[in-house]
């Protein structure tokens, strides 16, 4: 590169240097060499250089630049539709095949890169702009929601889960999205947990429209109702235990209401009789003897 700047192999040499620095995690040096390849617009390594530059930008905490580089990869591959075709070869020739595969990688990496931007409220439109496919964009939003959830970003993940539920309240995965929202409050905010628990039961429970619309998928509905019953029962018994230990009238009222919820949604559960007995014990402790006798 230094001694033969006019050589036809300079571009390949810059790329090789970029790879060397990349492997050694020298992101800035690697980026500079990839950018030299990018400057030669007709290089056969152009698309790959954009892709590797995106990773350098990401490692250097330059998220916006990383996203723009990935968008260039998709465009240079022939557009998002080619990248999304299963097994697509775009056109004859290994170069085109590699471009399409690289674009698919760029689309996959776009989500974790985008998560670093914090712009989750714009995710739906942004993803659609990149892939030009509503179903794929929705899948990317789901991936982003799970990414935020795994990273403990409750505000972002719940915003996206609720957005997906709103888009299609009776979709098969909608019940699980609500369950993920519920779990996010399990150990930190019991009031919000109870509110989201009720939303889960009312929107996706035994008498819900979701259950009716997904009746043909018996495995899904059966497993969802089983999970709901177990989650609610454990919540009720935990509240009851806390009420017994604390003797707090407020907690007793919460436990009593939780029992009412259980009998409303799971009156025909195999555990219904046992739960009715525990409910009576709670009411007895609250001096509600007539209600307890029922």
Task: Explain what you see.
It is a single chain. With 294 residues, the chain is mostly helical. 74% of the residues lie in helices and 0% in strands. It contains 16 helices and no strands. The chain has helices at residues 10-23, 27-39, 46-59, 63-76, 80-84, 94-115, 123-131, 134-150, 154-167, 174-183, 190-204, 209-213, 218-246, 249-265, 272-285, 289-293. α1 (10-23) packs antiparallel against α2 and α2 runs antiparallel to α3. It is elongated and about 90 Å long. Mean pLDDT is 90; it is low at 87-93.
In short, what is this structure?
This protein is mainly α. The chain has 16 helices and no strands.
Supply the number of helical segments: 16
- Total DSSP E strands: 0
Name the helicity range.
Answer: over 70%
Low-confidence stretches: 87-93
Mean pLDDT: 90
Straight-line distance between termini: 90 Å
Biggest sheet, in brief? none
Strand content: under 5%
Described by the principal axes of the CA atoms, the overall outline is elongated
Order of helices and strands: HHHHHHHHHHHHHHHH
- Radius of gyration from CA coordinates: 27 Å
Decide which structural class fits the backbone. Answer: mainly alpha
Oligomer state equals single chain
């Amino acid at each position: 590169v230094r001694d033969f700047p006019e050589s036809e192999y300079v571009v390949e040499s810059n790329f090789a240097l970029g790879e060397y620095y990349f492997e050694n995690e020298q992101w800035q040096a690697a980026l500079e060499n990839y950018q030299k390849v990018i400057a030669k617009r007709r290089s056969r390594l152009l698309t790959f250089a954009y892709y590797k530059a995106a990773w350098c930008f990401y490692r250097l905490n330059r998220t916006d630049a990383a996203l723009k580089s990935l968008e260039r990869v998709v465009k240079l591959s022939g557009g998002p539709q080619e990248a999304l075709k299963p097994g697509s070869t775009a056109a004859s020739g290994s170069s085109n095949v590699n471009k399409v595969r690289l674009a698919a990688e760029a689309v996959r990496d776009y989500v974790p890169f985008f998560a670093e931007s914090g712009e989750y409220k714009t995710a739906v439109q942004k993803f659609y702009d990149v892939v030009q496919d509503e179903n794929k964009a929705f899948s990317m939003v789901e991936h982003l929601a799970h990414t935020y959830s795994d990273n403990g970003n409750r505000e972002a993940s719940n915003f996206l889960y609720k957005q997906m539920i709103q888009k299609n309240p009776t979709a098969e995965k909608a019940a699980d999205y609500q369950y993920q929202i519920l779990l996010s409050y399990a150990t930190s905010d019991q009031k919000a947990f109870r509110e989201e628990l009720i939303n889960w039961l009312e929107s996706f429970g035994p008498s819900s429209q979701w259950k009716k619309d997904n009746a043909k998928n018996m495995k899904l509905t059966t497993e969802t109702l089983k999970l709901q019953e177990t989650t609610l029962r454990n919540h009720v018994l935990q509240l009851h235990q806390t009420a017994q230990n604390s003797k707090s009238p407020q907690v007793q009222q919460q436990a009593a209401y939780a029992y009412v919820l259980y009998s409303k949604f799971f009156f025909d559960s195999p555990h219904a009789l046992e739960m009715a007995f525990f409910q009576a014990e709670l009411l007895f402790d609250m001096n509600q003897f007539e209600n307890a006798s029922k």
